[in-house]
Amino acid sequence: MKGILFAILGGICITVQGVANSQIGAGIGTWQAATLTQFTGFVAAFILMLLFRDNSWKRFKDVKPLYLMGGTFAAIVIFSNVTAIHLIGITISISALLIAQLAIAFLTDRFGWFEVEKKKMRPGHFVGIGLMMLGVLILSM
Amino acid sequence: MIVGILFALVGGALVGLQNIFNSKVNEKAHSWATTMLVLALGFLASLILGIIFEGASLFHVTHMKTWYYFSGLIGVGVVTCVTQGVKRLSPTIAISIVLTAQLISALILDSLGSFGLAKVPFTWSKLIGVLVVIVGIVLFKVSDAHEEVSKSVKQSA
């Protein structure tokens, strides 16, 4: 039960984050919003890392440099998300974002990109993505 | 409409890539160190791109409100809740619930016009659209789980 509550709250937080970014972007500019929110988030995560005595940053050197760079995408993610929310509203933005996100996860699993173990495609994957696209189509009508 | 959807698709594709890369980091380092690194690099990239596109005007911020300073903390809430959810449930169920909650809260916020955003009026076709997307997500995720189950059966055989 607690797990379900955490998952629900996590989902709400992601949506609220997108909306808040979009609102801050309208107030002070999109790049300013991205820079500011990432900075305060970083400071908070840094403090929590120290509080929980997480010294595992020492192992960053064991990770391929490419994978360490994932965080940089956030700049473009926030810019795209804020722009999309302004243009088409929250619901369609998030639906389209989820489709692309799941499609990348699916392709990575399918073709074993980035040293991820290959998985087989199942009819349910195709029907699932098809339904998601149909849903976005209904939303955009 | 198309331009907005294209922006959302580019953003989503990058979120997908970022999830994969971050989980690679998370295989070696723990959650807080990983989160710290991800946000530090997100900050640096935003700062650099902001300077490239806006120059010095990036720092000439007017209309600042106090809550803007605290909005970054929502990101910490996201990491905590999603990590706890995945730990307590299976990844498939947890992520399906996360995505569903994301969409339903989006529909509610759109309909209420919260946070000063333009109100997008609620219609039944929107609710049907969201429900169809959710069924698609659950089906997609359940197909992933099916793969995992058949693999573990093979391993134990």
TrEMBL record, chain A:
Transmembrane segments: 32-52, 64-82, 88-111, 123-140
Annotated keywords: Membrane, Transmembrane, Transmembrane helix
InterPro entries: YdcZ
Domain of life: Bacteria
GO CC terms in record: plasma membrane
Protein known as: Transporter family-2 protein
Naturally occurring in which organism (per UniProt): Fictibacillus macauensis ZFHKF-1
TrEMBL record, chain B:
Domain of life according to the entry: Bacteria
Keyword Membrane: yes
Entry's Gene Ontology cellular component terms: plasma membrane
Keywords, ordered alphabetically: Membrane, Transmembrane, Transmembrane helix
Membrane topology field: Multi-pass membrane protein
Pfam families linked: DMT_YdcZ
Listed name of the protein: DMT family transporter
Organism of origin: Fictibacillus macauensis ZFHKF-1
